[in-house]
Amino acid sequence: GWTALVAAALLAVSGVVALMHYDTLVTIFRNKAVLARWTMATAENFVEDALFAVVLPTFALEILGTAGFGNGILLSGITLGGLVASKLLVSKAKDHQARMGTYRFLAVLTIGASLAFIPSIGLWAYPSLALAVPLVFLMKYLYQPIRSRMRALLQVSIKNDPEADKRSEDIYGLMSVVEVIAAGAGGLAFAWL
């Protein structure tokens, strides 16, 4: 029914976007650093946006029974976690990366991001709004640094490649479109599950 229709629409839009931005895609695929960082920066929307747009509202409504108020409070906790993590990252990232090296710094951030799902166990083990807010804060706090750093490194990779730098606006525009498609596909997948 509706799931198939939405999936078909997402595929159709993806095909049209690929055809419209073929030259930009070629530029992205020619530079492995840009491709890897662009893929990481966009693919995470499949899970993150779906989690925050489908799973947490369902959790607030059906598990906690807190309706829109609970969902709003949970989204506020997520936003606050992202803001605090981003503020700390902005003030410390360059120093840590210079001291540790890019690869090791990303490895540390990746470990932090992988730990972001541990607090979700508490959401299901002890479902309460009072516990859920600090847990979703912690989830976003652990996850946001790798997301932000990957985007910063993507900007550097694009700037360091003369061909990609000339097409930077197209690359970022295409990235935004792909993120929206990935978020829609992730939401559809999570809703289907």
What are the salient characteristics of this protein?
193 residues, single chain, mainly alpha, flat
Largest sheet data? none
State the helicity in percent bands.
over 70%
Measured by DSSP, the beta-strand proportion falls in under 5%
The helix/strand order is: HHHHHHHHH
| Global morphology | flat
Question: What would you call the structural class?
Answer: mainly alpha
Q: What value does the Rg take, in angstroms? A: 18 Å
Unreliably modeled segments: none
Per DSSP E runs of 2 or more residues, the count of β-strands stands at 0
Measured distance between first and last alpha carbons: 15 Å
Q: What oligomeric state do the depicted chains represent?
A: single chain
Helical segment tally?
Answer: 9
Average pLDDT, rounded to a whole number, is 83
